[in-house]
Amino acid sequence: MTTAARLPKIGFLGVGWIGLNRLQALSASGFVEICAVADPNPEMVAAALIEAPQATPMMALEDLLAADLDGIVIATPSALHAEQSISALEAGLAVFCQKPLGRSEKEAQAVIDAARRADRLLGVDLSYRETCGMKEIRTLIQGNEIGRVFAADLTFHNAYGPDKAWFHDRQLAGGGCLMDLGTHLVDLSLWALGFPEIGTVSGRLYAKAQIAGPNDVEDYATVRLLLKTGAEVIIACSWNLNAGQDADISATFYGDKGAARFRNINGSFYDFQAEHLVGTERRVLCGPPDDWGGRTIVEWGRQLASGSRFDPQIEQHLSTARVLDQVYRAHAR
Ligand SMILES: NC(=O)c1ccc[n+]([C@@H]2O[C@H](COP(=O)([O-])OP(=O)(O)OC[C@H]3O[C@@H](n4cnc5c(N)ncnc54)[C@H](O)[C@@H]3O)[C@@H](O)[C@H]2O)c1
User: Fold this and answer.
1) Ligand 1 centroid to residue 153 C-alpha, Å
2) Among 35, 85, 140, 279, which lies 20 to 30 A Cα-Cα from 332?
3) Which class does domain 9-127+294-311 fall in?
């Protein structure tokens, strides 16, 4: 007679906006059991307990580490990610961390090293990879359907900017819109192109329409990557831009046989369309409805439930952290 496998026991650390959203997705997946939620803000804990009434309310990471869990989900302010992830991994827990994994390549590397040493599954929420549009576009590029990609253009302009004070504190957030939104764009470009070798990196940071000083939190950023393939990737992102709509999000890849474009619909943060462009022709690859936000965490939950341990693919995240480091470092000079 076989006995049913026990579901991994999971705790959530930080159940603010995105923590609560991802808790709903993971809870609905059925891959894990959500046993604890920890947040110093009792209102956040109360809201999370509505979604996971069986979970034990807690205050801090130390409570979760003492709770006999298999893994934790970290969705705290960015400055805390690396240290909290390392503590959890060293205690033998699998970790799913919000982006950015660290505020620098050094921090991200330290987390990945801890995961490798502990042989524990480590996931990062680079959620836009899981939109149906970006998945289709990556397949098109990797299948050589648009030919040799020589240029890419990615934007993420958020007409509002974050409403929480910590995002505007360099120490707590690690940077401004580049750390917040640029992380997604650099990752998306490299992931879609199969993580090519990067030649040179340059960029510019602005704060309130002026070149940003070393202590400013940038609200407009551009990055230019020259890849060893010869391709050029141009990235622009911002908070509080006069964008004429809520958000302007796109990723376009130009090849010698065609192009592929991902873009948001009517300024939406959630609805996207992907298209294959050839000459004046445009073929829609996919569009809404597409409930993509929770896919990355659900996949982490599925892998954990199937016994997965350290996956070296996580090292891809270092390329993105390195690019951001280079832009911030050049700017601080
Ligand atoms: N993957 C994505 O697309 C995506 C989207 C939004 C946010 N994020 C990332 O998620 C993180 C959280 O963003 P948010 O918008 O949910 O912020 P938030 O401020 O709404 O939530 C953070 C929560 O962490 C709690 N907290 C603070 N210190 C803590 C500690 N020491 N231990 C436990 N909890 C603590 C706060 O009380 C709050 O409830 C950020 O790093 C952000 O970059 C990622």
Assistant:
1) 29
2) 85
3) alpha beta
